[in-house]
């Protein structure tokens, strides 16, 4: 069932110095999706907090200026998250499949690169939420048997591209296990 | 075999789906069916004892409260539940059967709602046998069969005759590895090992040492020290007062005997310390008495326990990560503890520790460890002469971080205690030294089949990860990391319950980390391909 003698792998399969595969970007439409979700989140954060500010502000007039300033600060941050951040996140995102290893990188401030040997792939979920469907997008969730990186999510793929990628991944993983 | 279990990637974390099929149609049973086996009749006795024990306290409460209120309803309710529980266990005893057939362990139980569970033997991670004192008298045992994923055992047989349990375990383990003979034959090459061997036995003396050098002792000492420091804050000049008081009391003691106050506290603290050490030693002996680690073919078997005897077996290929831990106390005695993770059970850590399940070898001389490792990892590369170090910025960053904490603390204490509160600043050189030493002992070594990492100066941990068990590798980079062009490399494995998993290596120069990550994942991907 399992190995009998772990033969040195290197002698069998010479390390292929193949042309480095370039990182593939996500679908640009994902910027729109992220902006929309950010807008919705901003609504949930800013409107109640504005109500709170006005409520407390009218109760204690001297505080009004400070509270409003704080609220505008928060609003500015949210605006930033709405306009600037999705673009940066899009630019940071990329994935590539190279010699049976999937590599995904992301992160604007905190950068993460995840490498996944495709033979370790347990199963792949194709996820399409209502907003994703509206933008014609899908996310792939790649599950491993690991503990910390148990699931690697690649968002913002064109629906057909996601399906193709899934089939490719499953095939590559399956090949290995035979 | 009509349906081979799908060739999933090996260390599957997905709970091996214990296939629950509808009750089989008797007519369809093949003629070659192995006979169904049942629990030992003494099961009834032991279940009864367990149930009675569970109901003892509620019953006592009901008796006490009930008698004063003259109200028997609660007693009847209790009786009702007792009868139901008894009935359930009777049903379980009379309906539970198990058999091994076509590479599966099949258990079946239930009267009205019948359950049949098929556990592919290749998926079995561990077969544990436990025997309490009472069970020892009757020569029966409890058996638990564990697969990857899920919590607790997939199948549990309580109780079986001892011989039957041994037979069951041997059958499961033999069937779990059809290639075992082959493996043994091919192992006759380099690093040939005898087919079976006793890897290590622990003497009482070693267990005493283990108890003495346990963290429990250390933490009690720390507690006493903290209590002492706290007392010093609350009562300034405690020491002087104490000494005067001791003198006075000694004088007074001579006169009247029992009026001592301060000495009582001091002796009390010492007594607590001594008691905790004794308890920890006793605990170590009770849990691990007669600890024997043997290797039978590909299996590592542990047997231990003074009152409750525990036996477990662990196919060595299933070791996901191995950790050599040397706590400060252990280092004083030059001892180490070995932990191993499988993809198997994920019990609560505390319970595992109580049952001694988390450790592969509770205590061993550090110098012996390197000699033992090939038993766990057959093709382990020899210990590296030189560990690959991370970037030296680690020292600066660690010192800055620790120094900053010192400055903050000093600032806070300055407000409270005046100039005397600046003492944390004196710790900054210490912080620097600790960081330098930690840096020197932090490193990794990439062998042919294994990745080793080590860290810590005072308190050390060495991890060994078979590369074929690597599930994923991640590189994390904070904005600060980016300034130093370093990343933290995290190796992900299937089991991380007892070893903490493969540790994250921080401050690795980014290009080196990228190369290492690519190398590790590429090899992991290929090893699967070669080895299946």
Describe the structure.
The complex is a heterodimer of chains A (about 180) and B (about 525). With about 180 residues, chain A is of the alpha+beta class. Chain A has six helices and six strands. Chain A has helices spanning about 10, 30-60, 65-85, 85-90, 130-135, 160-175, and strands spanning about 95-100, 100-105, 110-115, 120-125, 135-145, 150-160. Chain A is elongated, with a radius of gyration of 23 Å. Chain A starts with 8 loop residues before the first helix and ends with a helix. With about 525 residues, chain B is an alpha+beta fold. Helices cover about 45% and strands about 25% of the residues of chain B. Chain B has helices at about 45-70, 75-95, 135-140, 160-175, 180-185, 205-210, 215-235, 240-255, 260-290, 330, 350-355, 365-375, 395-415, 430-440, 480-485, 510-530, and strands at about 20, 35-40, 95-100, 105-110, 115-120, 125-130, 140-145, 155-160, 195-200, 290-295, 300-305, 310-315, 320-325, 335-340, 360-365, 445, 450-455, 460-465, 470-475, 485-490, 505-510. In chain B, the strands form four sheets. Chain B has a seven-stranded antiparallel beta sheet with strand order 8-7-6-12-11-10-9, sandwiched between helices. The radius of gyration of chain B is 29 Å and the shape is globular. The two termini of chain B are about 20 Å apart. Chains A and B meet through strand 3, strand 4 and helix 6 of A and helix 5, strand 19, strand 20 and helix 16 of B. Strand 3 (about 110-115) of chain A pairs antiparallel with strand 19 (about 470-475) of chain B.
């Amino acid at each position: 069932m399992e190995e009998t003698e772990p033969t040195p792998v290197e002698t069998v399969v010479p390390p292929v110095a193949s042309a480095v595969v370039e990182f593939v970007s996500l679908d640009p439409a994902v910027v729109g999706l992220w902006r929309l979700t950010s807008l919705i989140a901003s609504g949930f954060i800013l409107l109640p907090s504005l109500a709170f500010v006005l409520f407390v502000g009218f109760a204690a007039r001297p505080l009004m200026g400070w509270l409003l300033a704080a609220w505008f600060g928060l609003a500015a941050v949210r605006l930033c998250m709405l306009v600037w951040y999705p673009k940066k996140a899009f630019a940071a995102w990329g994935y590539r499949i190279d010699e049976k290893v999937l590599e995904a990188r992301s992160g604007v401030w905190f950068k993460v690169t995840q490498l996944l040997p495709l033979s370790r792939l347990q199963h792949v979920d194709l996820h399409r939420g209502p907003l994703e469907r509206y933008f014609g997008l899908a996310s792939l969730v790649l599950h491993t048997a690991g503990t910390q990186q148990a699931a690697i999510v690649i968002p913002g793929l064109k629906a057909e591209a996601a399906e193709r990628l899934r089939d490719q991944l499953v095939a590559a993983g399956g090949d290995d296990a035979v | 075999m009509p349906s081979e279990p799908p060739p999933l990637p090996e260390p599957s974390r997905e709970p091996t789906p214990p296939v629950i099929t509808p009750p089989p149609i008797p007519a369809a049973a093949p003629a070659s069916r192995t006979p169904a086996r049942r629990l030992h009749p003494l099961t009834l006795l032991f279940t009864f004892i367990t149930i009675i024990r569970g109901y003892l306290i509620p019953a006592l409460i009901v008796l006490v409260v009930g008698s004063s209120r003259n109200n028997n309803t609660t007693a009847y309710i209790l009786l009702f539940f007792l009868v139901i529980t008894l009935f359930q266990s009777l049903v379980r005893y009379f309906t539970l059967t198990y058999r091994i057939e076509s590479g599966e362990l099949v258990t079946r139980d239930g009267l009205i709602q019948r359950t049949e569970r098929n556990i592919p033997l290749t998926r079995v991670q561990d077969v544990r046998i436990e025997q309490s004192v009472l069970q020892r008298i009757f020569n029966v045992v409890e058996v638990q069969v564990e697969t990857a994923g899920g919590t607790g055992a997939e199948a549990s047989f309580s109780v079986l005759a001892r011989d039957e349990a041994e037979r069951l375990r041997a059958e499961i383990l033999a069937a779990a590895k059809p290639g075992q003979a082959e493996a043994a034959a091919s192992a006759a090459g380099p690093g040939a090992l005898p087919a079976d061997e006793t890897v290590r036995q622990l003497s009482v003396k070693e267990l005493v040492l283990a108890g003495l050098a346990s963290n429990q002792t250390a933490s009690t000492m720390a507690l006493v020290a903290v209590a002492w420091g706290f007392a010093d804050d609350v009562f300034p000049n405690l020491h002087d007062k104490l000494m005067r008081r001791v003198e006075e009391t000694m004088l007074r003691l001579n006169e009247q005997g029992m009026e001592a106050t301060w000495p009582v506290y001091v002796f009390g603290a010492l007594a607590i310390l001594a008691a905790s050490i004794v308890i920890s030693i006793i605990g170590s002996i009770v849990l691990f008495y007669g600890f024997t680690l043997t290797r039978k073919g590909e299996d590592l078997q542990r047997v231990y326990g003074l009152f409750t005897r525990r036996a477990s077996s662990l196919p060595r290929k299933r070791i996901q990560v191995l950790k050599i831990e040397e706590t400060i106390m252990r280092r004083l005695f030059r001892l180490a503890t070995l932990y191993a993770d499988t993809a198997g059970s994920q019990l609560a850590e505390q319970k595992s520790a109580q049952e001694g399940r988390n450790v592969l070898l509770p205590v061993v001389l550090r110098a012996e460890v390197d000699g033992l490792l090939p038993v766990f990892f057959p093709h382990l590369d020899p210990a590296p002469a030189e560990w690959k170090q991370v970037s030296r910025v680690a020292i600066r960053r660690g010192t800055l971080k620790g120094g900053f904490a010192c400055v903050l603390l000093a600032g806070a204490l300055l407000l409270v205690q005046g100039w005397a509160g600046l003492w944390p600043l004196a710790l900054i050189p210490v912080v620097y030294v600790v960081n330098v030493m930690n840096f020197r002992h932090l490193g990794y070594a990439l062998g042919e089949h294994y990745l080793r990492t080590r860290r810590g100066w005072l308190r050390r941990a060495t991890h060994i990860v078979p590369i074929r068990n690597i599930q994923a590798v991640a590189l994390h980079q904070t904005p600060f990391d980016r300034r130093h062009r370093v990343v933290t490399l995290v190796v992900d494995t299937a089991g991380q319950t007892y070893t903490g998993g493969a540790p994250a290596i921080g401050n690795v120069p980014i290009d080196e980390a990228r190369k290492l990550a690519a190398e590790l994942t590429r090899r992991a991907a290929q090893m699967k391909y070669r080895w299946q």
